[in-house]
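Example 9 (inverse folding). The structure is encoded as follows.
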């Protein structure tokens, strides 16, 4: 045929060769959009960082010292890894970011033990949970009961040991707290927090290395290193609580990662980057102090993170709002995660797909996806009507704010969990059924373990959105400024985005240039760390598959 089809003529040239012009233009457009987005984000971060740090207030000699001792070695090692050892570069960046993320997590744990539960309350809670577990194990071993009876017994035992029956039967936790003699607070935290972590560390190393001796040594070293803080901490100017938390929350994951790299033998040289930066920072501090170079007049310092709001910009801090955000996220996670994952499991594994009920389920799924795009202010109004007007709860308390934001991210958690569950190959389900497993056993032992990394990734991203929401908090009456951190989930609180919104409305330029920028930088660091954790989980899951 001499004629050419018009639908294919646009894709082929006169000589019959495939035209790549449209593909190249499309590729260039996508690349341009990506570069523009990254550039705008970079400009925003630089703008905020300049206001929060004020680099122009430092002596040029101070910046020169920082560049020579910290920046030059870091850039040189990074270029070397990129050019010659990519595997070592991955190890270097992980070893550099892990302590930062662990330190942020340690700060959250410290807030929990300072404002939510005391060491004695934590000890009582752990003992009550252990007693409940022992009772449930004894019941399962001595009585061949059905799933319904086991579930009823589990609920009853947990209620009696942890909550009790108000006015009738005190809980085991309450009985322990009422004892006339309790261990000292450091010993309570050491036995109820550090020892379980030491046992977990020992079990992990025993499993990966196949050596009981290695597990015992690692677990014992964790407990001993933490116990030294009771004596060595005050001597070094660190409280024993801070020492215990840093040892377990920061030292344990960093130590396990270094041990894994050394055991694997790949990319070991990447561990030199954090060491070089740490040594450079120490040398920089010594040189700057000896020479008397003046550093930048930063707004984001330790005082800003540990003090409350003040009318004086230089004395204003974000600590109460930071505590409120941590407590709110705990409520959000406890409310949204089990409900969202449970709904996703039902919709994917149990809900009918045919007939009238199947049509109803499909309609529900469509509406859940649509709810993920509803403006956040609508969820604020829903929380106000549901929890304050109907539920009778006090506006502006942690529970109300957390439950309202949990409604906001619930559709996101459900959709992401559905996608993760749907990604589990159906052949694995059929293999479990072929071995005689029931539906519940298949979901519990096959589907959930393989879908959990994807579920956690979606949940962490949803929590990252939750911690930055402001409109729902405004609707439920969250205070603009709280000078005292909340000590319970029914106390008044403020959150970081709510505090930033109030700072932006103040008339003094130092508030919306310096203090506001420092608060935005704190919030951005938390968000970036949460999103980075989600990305690492996703990458690890993809490599495992």
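The amino acid assigned to each position is listed next.
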């Amino acid at each position: 045929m001499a004629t050419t089809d018009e639908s294919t003529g646009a894709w082929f040239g006169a000589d019959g060769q495939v035209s790549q012009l449209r593909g190249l233009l499309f590729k260039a457009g996508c690349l341009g959009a990506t570069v523009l987005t990254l550039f705008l984000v970079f400009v925003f971060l630089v703008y905020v960082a300049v206001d929060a740090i004020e680099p122009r207030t430092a002596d040029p000699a101070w910046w020169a010292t920082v560049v020579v001792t910290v920046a030059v070695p870091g850039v040189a090692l990074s270029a070397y890894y990129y050019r010659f050892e990519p595997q070592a570069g991955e190890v270097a960046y992980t070893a550099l970011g892990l302590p930062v993320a662990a330190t942020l997590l340690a700060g959250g744990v410290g807030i929990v033990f300072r404002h939510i539960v005391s060491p004695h309350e934590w000890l009582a809670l752990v003992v009550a949970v252990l007693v409940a577990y022992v009772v449930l194990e004894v019941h399962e071993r001595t009585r061949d009961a059905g799933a319904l009876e086991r579930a009823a017994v589990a609920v009853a035992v947990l209620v009696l040991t942890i909550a009790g029956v108000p006015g009738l039967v005190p809980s085991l936790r309450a009985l322990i707290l009422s004892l006339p003699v309790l261990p000292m607070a450091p010993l309570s935290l050491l036995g109820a927090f550090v020892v379980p972590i030491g046992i977990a560390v020992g079990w992990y190393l025993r499993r990966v290395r196949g050596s009981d001796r290695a597990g015992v040594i690692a677990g014992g070293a964790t407990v001993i290193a933490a116990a030294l803080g009771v004596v060595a901490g005050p001597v070094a100017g660190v409280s024993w609580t801070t020492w215990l938390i840093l040892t377990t929350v920061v030292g344990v994951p960093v130590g396990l990662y270094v041990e894994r790299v050394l055991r694997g033998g790949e990319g070991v040289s990447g561990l030199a980057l954090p060491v070089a930066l740490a040594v450079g920072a120490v040398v920089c501090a010594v040189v700057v102090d000896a020479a008397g170079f003046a550093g930048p007049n930063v707004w984001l310092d330790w005082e800003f993170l540990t003090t409350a709001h003040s009318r004086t910009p230089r004395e204003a801090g974000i600590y109460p709002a930071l505590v409120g955000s941590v407590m709110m996220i705990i409520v959000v996670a406890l409310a949204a995660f089990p409900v969202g994952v449970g709904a996703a499991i039902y919709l994917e594994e149990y809900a009918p797909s045919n007939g009238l009920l199947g049509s109803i389920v499909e309609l529900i799924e469509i509406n859940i996806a649509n709810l993920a795009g509803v403006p956040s202010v609508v969820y604020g109004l829903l929380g106000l009507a549901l929890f304050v007007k109907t539920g009778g709860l006090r506006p502006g308390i942690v529970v109300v704010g957390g439950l309202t934001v949990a409604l906001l991210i619930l559709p996101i958690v459900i959709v992401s969990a559905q996608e993760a569950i749907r990604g589990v190959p159906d052949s694995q389900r059929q293999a479990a059924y072929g071995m005689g497993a029931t539906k519940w056993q298949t979901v519990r032992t096959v589907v959930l373990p393989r879908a959990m990394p994807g579920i956690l990734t979606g949940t962490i991203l949803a929590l990252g959105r939750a911690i930055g929401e402001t409109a729902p908090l405004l609707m439920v009456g969250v205070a603009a400024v709280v000078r005292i951190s909340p000590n319970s989930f029914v106390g008044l609180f403020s959150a970081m985005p709510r505090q930033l919104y109030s700072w932006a409305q103040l008339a003094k330029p130092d508030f919306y240039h310096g203090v506001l920028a420092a608060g935005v930088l704190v919030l951005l660091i938390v968000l970036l760390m949460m999103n980075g954790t989600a990305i690492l989980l996703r990458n690890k899951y993809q490599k495992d598959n």
